[in-house]
Specification:
Layout: H1 18-22, H2 25-28, H3 33-53, H4 58-71, H5 82-96, H6 103-117, H7 131-150, H8 161-170, H9 176-188, H10 193-196, H11 199-214, H12 233-247, E1 310-312, E2 318-320
Antiparallel strand pairs: 1-2
Length: 331
């Protein structure tokens, strides 16, 4: 087994109640519902875009989005920046689904993707001998560890995509039905639907929406079709409403919640875990800014030696003088 392999722990779907979704750590720290919703959508869009660029399977991207939503049921957006968490979730999911990518490639692709989102054409590849690359790498490793810790290493996800083809065959639907239902499933994962309902119910609701779009009737005798999939009509209605609401929204954008004026709360007093890495947009203290100086959790500058000495093993172990105590494949 390679050092970067994550052994998944198989567990039933983790479903959150309405009360739990209304009382997340972000909401408790003063972030309003709309801002949290937009940040969740934005983070999932980053995951999907990154997954496409890295040619990852859609199931891997779906797993990452569920991990992302579950992670922010445990922590606040004020403590973990959405951009870095999105990268860490898809990086972790690629290992869980056995489609791992090298950490060097993940950092470079995400860095390039974020700069292009800011309108910078043809950004340069990060120099692995510079402190910027190592800062990003250490931040990614640190965030991935926190995700694993907060989720209790329960990272195996049963995603609704796995049920689409099977369900449409049971319903004797045409080939256009799963083709239309698949993108609906992908889109609904940007919302909290994936942690409110079982994947079977999400797949059934997506098939229903696809059938309505194609004008295909679904059988209701001798028993309603949704009962074949152990779901209820109320669940299907709720999922359809969530997807419809998603489509009515404008494109989500990055929101730096650390700059918002929020009500005082003891849970909001904790220092950001990301420290010097509040965002990937090239802000004052972002490592993407050529003039940036990393800051630690206390807000003081860290003197980073840009001539970091490294001794790289060509297999999977990388030793650095930053003492990260982490075995990572950098080749």
């Amino acid at each position: 087994m390679s050092h970067h392999t994550v052994v998944p722990v198989i567990a039933p779907p983790i479903i959150f109640t309405e009360d739990e979704l209304k009382n997340t750590p972000s909401r408790i720290s003063g972030i309003d519902e709309e801002t949290e919703t937009l940040l969740r959508i934005y983070g999932c869009e980053l995951i999907q875009e990154f997954g496409i660029l890295m040619k990852l399977p859609e199931v891997t991207m779906a797993t990452a989005q569920v991990l992302f939503h579950r992670f922010y049921q445990q922590v606040s957006f004020r403590r973990f920046d959405v951009q870095l968490s999105a990268l860490a979730c898809i990086f972790l999911a690629s290992k869980v689904e056995e489609h791992p990518r090298k950490i060097r490639d993940a950092i470079n692709v995400f860095h390039r993707m974020m700069l292009k989102r800011e309108g910078i054409e043809n950004p340069l590849i990060l120099d692995t001998s510079k402190s910027l690359y190592w800062d990003l790498k250490n931040a990614l490793i640190k965030t991935e560890r926190f995700i694993l810790k907060e989720l209790g290493f329960l990272v195996y996800i049963e995603v609704p995509q796995r049920f689409i083809s099977f369900y449409t065959k049971i319903l004797n639907g045409p080939k256009e039905l799963p083709q239309r239902a698949w993108p609906l499933v992908n889109d609904c994962l940007r919302t909290t639907v994936c942690i409110r309902f079982r994947p079977e119910s999400i797949a059934a609701a997506s098939i229903y929406m696809a059938a309505r779009y194609l004008g295909l009737p679904l059988p209701e005798v001798p028993e309603p079709w949704w009962e074949l999939f152990d779901t209820t009509w109320e669940e299907i209605e709720a999922i359809v409403l969530a997807i419809t609401d998603l489509y009515s929204r404008p494109k989500a954008k990055y929101i730096d919640v650390t700059k918002l004026t929020l009500p005082h709360d003891t849970s909001a007093d904790k220092e950001p875990i990301n420290g010097y890495f509040p965002n990937l947009r090239g802000g004052t203290h972002s490592p993407l800014s050529s003039q940036a100086s990393p800051i630690n959790n206390n807000g003081t500058n860290i003197n980073v030696n840009t001539n970091t000495n490294t001794n790289t093993n060509t297999d999977t172990n990388t030793n650095t003088n930053t003492n990260t105590d982490t075995n990572t494949n950098t080749n």
